[in-house]
């Protein structure tokens, strides 16, 4: 009987660096959405700063909250996340990454995430500035609620 030598393993040092969010499209994206996903990947890479990192992070949260979300690119390059209608857009500006919820005025926002477009009759937005921490659990709940509202078929009446 042959003896096999045990493989020597070396312990890894714990990294003090925080893992950077992936800029690649989530694996859950259907093949038909690949062109839009590639455009969003390119936009994130092109930004190359905190805005790209933030957009990549919220994109991942959107996919966590609504695994069957469809990605589109509209209006000159704006990422749009849909399920039975628009859930939200992911716009990038010099000072903010803006998530605009198409039917935001109809959503409960118990954690007061919405901080922009509050005067709108239908839309509401969340502006994320450099260095701001995202309440991920609350954001995912808001995203799920928006998707459920779209799936319900209910229309949002202007206030």
Could you describe the 3D structure shown?
This protein has three helices and five strands, in the order H-H-E-E-E-E-E-H. The longest helix has 17 residues. Helix 1 runs antiparallel to helix 2 and helix 2 packs across helix 3. The protein has a single domain, classed as Alpha-Beta Complex (Aspartate Aminotransferase, domain 1). It has a five-stranded antiparallel sheet. It has 159 residues and is α+β, with helices and mostly antiparallel strands. About 16% of the residues have low confidence.
Strand order of the largest sheet: 1-2-3-4-5
- Helix- and strand-based class? alpha+beta
Q: Radius of gyration, Cα only, in angstroms?
A: 19 Å
Biggest beta-sheet profile:
5 strands, antiparallel
**What's the architecture in CATH terms?**
Alpha-Beta Complex
As a percent range, the share of strand residues is 15-25%
User: In the residues, how many domains can be counted?
Assistant: 1
Topology pattern, helix = H, strand = E: HHEEEEEH
Helix segment tally: 3
Percentage of residues in helical conformation: 25-40%
Cα distance, first to last residue?
82 Å
What CATH calls the topology is: Aspartate Aminotransferase, domain 1
Query: How much is the average pLDDT?
Result: 83
β-strand number: 5
Flag low-confidence runs: 4-23, 27-32
From the spread of the alpha carbons, the general shape counts as globular
Which CATH top level class fits?
Alpha Beta
């Amino acid at each position: 009987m042959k003896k096999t030598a045990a493989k020597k393993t070396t312990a890894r040092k714990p990294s003090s660096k925080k893992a950077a969010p992936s800029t690649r499209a989530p694996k859950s994206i259907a093949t038909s959405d690949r062109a839009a996903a590639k455009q969003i990947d390119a936009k994130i890479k092109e930004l190359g700063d905190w805005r790209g990192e933030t957009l990549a992070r919220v994109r991942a949260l959107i996919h966590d909250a609504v695994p069957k979300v469809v990605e589109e690119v509209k209006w000159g390059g704006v990422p749009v996340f849909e399920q039975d209608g628009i859930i939200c857009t992911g716009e990038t500006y010099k000072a903010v990454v803006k998530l605009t919820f198409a039917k935001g005025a109809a959503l409960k926002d118990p954690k007061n995430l919405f901080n922009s477009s509050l005067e709108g009759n239908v839309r509401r937005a969340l502006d994320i500035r450099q260095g701001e921490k995202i309440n991920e659990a609350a954001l995912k709940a808001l995203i799920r609620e928006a998707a459920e509202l779209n799936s319900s078929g209910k229309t949002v009446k202007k206030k």
